[in-house]
Every structure is written in structure tokens, then in C-alpha cells.
Design brief:
Pathway: Lipid metabolism; fatty acid beta-oxidation. Helices cover 50% and strands 12% of the residues. It contains twelve helices and nine strands. The strands form two sheets. The chain has a six-stranded mixed sheet, sandwiched between helices. A three-stranded mixed sheet has the order 5-7-8. Helix 1 (11-22) packs antiparallel against helix 2, helix 2 runs parallel beside helix 4 (108-131) and helix 6 packs across helix 7 (191-200). Mean pLDDT is 91; it is low at 1-7.
Length: 297
């Protein structure tokens, strides 16, 4: 890990920084510019096209939890090394939890329960991206397949390069996608588009992904994607952390409830959060025609 604030006086933050520096097997986590609150989590198995291995399912929630606890982290970029973003779940590899769970013992009920628990654990690993209080921005290039689509669906903002392609391949593998895509995609692209992708297993281009709302921005190259996403993340990181985290929390809550319930939730949230020093500073800065200086977490 590059550029952590090693002098933190917060024991929990110092512990999170130390654990991030210990590194990961399947990920690379870095803060390339210590003047910003932007961290990058990079899928880092390019030789395997960043297929999601058992280690990846263990490390993604660990990384997200550490960044959630780290005060210096204000925004997270989720990217990938090599020519492709993610080839989906690694099939046939050692320690595959689905294979192991389905082969345990001779009792079919025990095997089914083991498989169910394995699926729930993998679901929870990707939900950790959504659960992270800091906004997560996906930067997708090359192929994004199966479980890779589930990963980006759990992100808050999705961007891609023009060469990116997206495909839900599970139906062609005679299985039902089970890591969150069927639950999140209808809320992102609408039921009809989600059904089209999930039932046909067809590959879509970056521009079609943009047209249906799967991604919000398309960049001409990987280099422009990296620069563009870094700019988006930096702009978010410069805003009040309390306002950003609250906005993410309210958006997620409102997605899953009625409008009336969502309005009640944000009213309760702001009953506490409108007392923040950041709000007072934002008003002062506006009146004084200067850039606000927000508090640290």
C-alpha cells in the first residue's frame, strides 16, 4: 500500500492503516496522492483475468471494511490490473467454496445447506462494497463477465472505457446468477433491460451499457478512464465526508423502501446531521466566496 498516514493518533485508524500495508493476495490497495482522500482497490490477478477466487471473496470485504474505518479514506476507486476487468467466478480452482460445499458428505440436505451457506458468504463479500460508507466508483475496462457485473452493480458510480464489454454468462452455464446482479440490476437499468441481459446472456458494448444506465460515463481509452475516475473521486473526496456518507446511506435506504418511508428516513437522518460543523462552514464559505474547509472524520 502506498502513501498511508502513518502518524494517525486514532488507534483504530492506525490499526487499519497497518493492516492495509500488510497487503493482499488478490488485490492491490493504494493511495497514490496523499493530498487527497482517494484510495484505489485494484483487482490484481491479471494472468487469471481477475477471476474471483476464494481468496478474492475473502479479501474484498476485508479491504472495504478497512477503508470504511479509515478517516483518511473519503472515496474509493475499484479498478483492475491487466487487459480485462473481471472474468467472473473462478471455476474449478482449488478451494472453490461451491464445489467443496456441494460435495460434502452423502446427505443431500447437508450438502444443500453447505452450498447455501457458501453462496450467502460470497453474496456478503460483494455486498461489502455497497456496505462501505465511502462511495465506491467502478472503473471498468475490457471484459466484465458474470460475477464481475455483480461487483460493479454493488458500486455507487460506474464508469468504463470504450473497449469495455459486459455479459451475464450464468444462464449459458446452466445456473441462475446468485451474487446480486439479478437483485441490483433491475434497480439500475430497469426490469426489461435486466431481463434481456440475464436471459439471453448476450454481450453488450460500453455504449449500450451507457444507453441503458449501467454506466454513467464512457471514456475513449483506459488512460482517460483512469484520469476521469480519479477526478470524479477527488471531487467527491473534497466534499463534506458526513454529507457524502449520509447521501450514500439515504440513497441505498430509499432504493429499497417506498417514497414515503424514504422521506421519513432522511428527515430522521438530517434531524441529527444538520447540526454538523461542516454545514456551518459551507454556509460561511459561500458567504465569504471561498472554498470550504471541512472537518476530518
Amino acid at each position: 500500500m502506498a502513501g498511508g498516514d502513518r502518524g494517525s493518533s486514532d488507534p483504530a485508524a492506525a490499526a487499519a492503516e497497518a493492516e492495509l500495508r500488510r497487503g493482499f493476495e488478490t488485490l492491490a490497495v493504494a493511495r497514490s496522492d496523499t493530498s487527497t482522500g482517494v484510495y484505489e482497490v485494484r483487482l490484481n490477478r491479471p494472468a487469471q483475468r481477475n477471476a474471483l477466487s476464494p481468496a478474492a471473496f475473502a479479501e474484498i470485504p476485508r479491504a472495504m471494511s478497512l477503508l470504511d474505518r479509515l478517516p483518511t479514506a473519503r472515496a474509493v476507486v475499484l479498478s483492475a490490473a491487466g487487459p480485462h476487468f473481471c472474468a467472473g467466478i473462478e471455476l474449478g480452482g482449488p478451494g472453490n467454496p461451491l464445489t467443496a460445499a456441494s460435495s460434502k458428505g452423502s446427505d443431500p440436505v447437508a450438502a444443500a445447506e453447505g452450498l447455501r451457506r457458501a453462496i450467502l458468504e460470497m453474496q456478503d463479500a460483494l455486498t461489502a462494497i455497497e456496505r462501505c460508507r465511502k462511495p465506491v466508483i467502478a472503473a471498468v475496462h475490457g471484459a466484465c463477465v458474470g460475477g464481475g457485473v455483480d461487483v460493479v452493480a454493488a458500486c455507487d458510480i460506474r464508469c468504463c472505457s470504450r473497449d469495455a464489454t459486459f455479459v451475464l454468462k450464468e444462464v449459458d452455464m446452466a445456473i441462475v446468477a446468485d451474487l446480486g446482479g439479478l437483485q441490483r440490476l433491475p434497480r439500475i437499468v430497469g426490469y426489461g433491460n435486466a431481463a434481456d441481459l440475464a436471459l439471453t446472456g448476450r454481450r453488450i458494448t460500453a455504449m449500450e451499457a451507457k444507453e441503458m444506465g449501467l454506466v454513467s460515463r464512457v471514456f475513449d481509452s483506459k488512460k482517460e478512464l483512469d484520469a476521469g475516475v480519479a477526478k470524479i473521486a477527488k471531487e467527491i473526496a473534497e466534499k463534506s465526508a458526513w454529507a457524502v456518507m449520509g447521501t450514500k446511506a439515504v440513497l441505498l435506504r430509499s432504493r429499497d423502501v417506498t417514497v414515503e418511508q424514504g422521506l421519513e428516513h432522511v428527515a430522521t437522518w438530517n434531524a441529527a446531521m444538520l447540526r454538523s460543523n461542516d454545514l456551518k462552514e459551507a454556509i460561511r464559505a459561500f458567504l465569504e466566496k471561498r472554498k470550504p474547509v471541512f472537518s476530518k472524520l
